[in-house]
Design goal:
Blueprint: H1 3-24, H2 27-34, H3 39-46, H4 48-62, H5 70-89, H6 94-121, H7 126-150, H8 158-174, H9 193-197, H10 208-237, H11 243-247, H12 249-290, H13 298-305, H14 307-325, H15 331-360, E1 362-363, E2 366-367, H16 369-390
Antiparallel strand pairs: 1-2
Helix pairs in contact: 1-6, 1-7, 1-8, 2-3, 2-10, 3-15, 4-6, 4-15, 5-6, 5-8, 7-12, 10-15, 10-16, 12-13, 12-14, 12-16, 14-15
Length: 403
């Protein structure tokens, strides 16, 4: 890959995740503290990304990569999305905000897969060339959090406006990306909804290990959404200064553990990697539940820093497991199916459930965060125990083959 292409793809990834990190992390704080939305409303708003994740594959599979060049679709979606975000920042009622935000996430979520596919099309060896480009996305998320936190904008609509401006800038920049036309073999090809969701992978559910993996992954995604929807609101409510900036330590941790994952794979294998990831989610919520006292503030930092294990050991390991377990002709369908079940259905249910729990423990103008965090901690621990008892998968050897 030539240097100019590498730089363009790196810039695209940086802006792609800067946009998401700018509005998503602190949205709950603005909705709760400034607009006084209920916990259920905040959870549902956070769940728009999950709902869009269930719908967007249909767009990517049936329209993108078949009728238009990828960079042009990206440009249109990001520019339109940026405009919609400015409208979202103007909303003061739940109905108006939810509707506008859902339109935005329907624009944004397809771009995650499209930016990856465009990058892969420019690479001779994606396994080697993609990671150092993708890590710019994590750095973009960190930059957004540092900017929003340092400027003290967490309880305002300004982060949505910043994200909207960055989205429009990214849309214009996408027009300068390498031309990536539809693949000839997919142009005009009829694709069904079953192909998009990956229903062909259902035949893998006949194997107990894969079925337990899918069910366990779905269940663990329900308590997971407590963090994404309410962690920033929680930290601000207990008066943690510059909370958004401090939360970026989780992305720093994510980069570190991504780099050392091969070492852990050789020593732990898939099953124990997944179990450690689930244990990390349990520990994170326990730290949050007991870390609200001044002399235990280290627990809050520990909970944030566990993000690398929480995300890499669970999501990334799961993707690798699916890739190794599924036959070659079912790998794409299996990845689509597990993404639909976890990032879509699981996260959507988790968004609603987390909001209901937060409402149940409301105390005047605040919340009983100790009891709130014990709920996802208990849920994650239960899934961990059930997964440990019933998951009987072959493990992964040092060379990456299932044994």
């Amino acid at each position: 890959m030539i240097l100019s292409t590498r730089l363009k793809l790196s810039a695209m990834m940086f802006l792609q995740y800067f946009v998401w990190g700018a509005w998503y992390v602190t949205m709950g704080t603005w909705l709760g503290q400034t607009l006084h939305f209920s916990g259920e409303q905040i959870g549902l708003a956070a769940g728009t990304t999950a709902l869009a994740a269930m719908i967007s594959p249909f767009f990517v599979g049936m329209v993108a990569d078949r009728f238009m060049a990828t960079e042009r679709i990206l440009a249109a979606l990001h520019i339109l999305g940026g405009i919609v975000l400015f409208f979202a920042a103007m909303q003061t009622t739940f109905g108006g905000f939810y509707g506008v935000l859902l339109i935005y996430t329907l624009c944004y979520m397809p771009t995650l897969a499209l930016s990856n596919s465009l990058s892969f099309r420019q690479m001779a060896d994606p396994g080697v060339e993609f990671p150092p480009i993708r890590v710019l996305g994590t750095i973009g998320w960190i930059a957004a959090g540092l900017a929003i936190g340092t400027l003290g904008l967490e309880a305002t609509a300004t982060p949505l406006q910043i994200a909207g401006g960055a989205s429009i800038l990214l849309g214009l920049f996408c027009l300068a990306l390498p031309h990536t036309p539809p693949l000839e073999k997919t142009t005009g090809k009829r694709v069904t909804w079953a192909d998009i969701v990956g229903l062909d992978a259902l035949k893998l559910m006949g194997e107990r290990s894969f079925a337990v993996f899918v069910i366990g992954s779905f269940l663990i995604c329900i308590p997971l959404q407590f963090y994404y929807a309410f962690a920033n609101m929680f930290l601000n409510e207990i008066h943690v200064a510059n909370a958004a900036s401090k939360m970026t330590l989780g992305q720093v941790s994510e980069i570190f553990f991504m780099l050392v994952m091969p070492w852990f794979f050789r020593r732990l294998g898939v099953k124990w990697m997944l179990l450690v990831g689930m244990l990390a989610w349990t520990a994170r919520y326990a730290f949050f539940a007991f870390g609200t006292h001044a002399d235990l503030v280290w627990m809050l930092y520990a909970g944030i820093l566990l993000h690398g294990i929480c995300y890499d050991f669970f999501f990334v390991t799961g993707q690798i497991y699916v890739d190794k377990k599924a036959p070659g002709d079912l790998r794409a369908a299996a990845q689509g199916f597990i993404a639909f079940v976890t990032l879509g259905v699981g996260m959507f249910i988790g968004s609603w459930a987390s909001g209901r729990v937060v409402d149940a423990f409301r105390l005047g103008d605040g919340h009983d965060w100790h009891r709130i965090w014990l709920v996802p901690a208990g849920g994650a621990a239960l899934v961990l125990v059930l997964f440990a008892l019933f998951f009987r998968s072959d493990d992964t050897s040092a060379d990456g083959a299932l044994r």
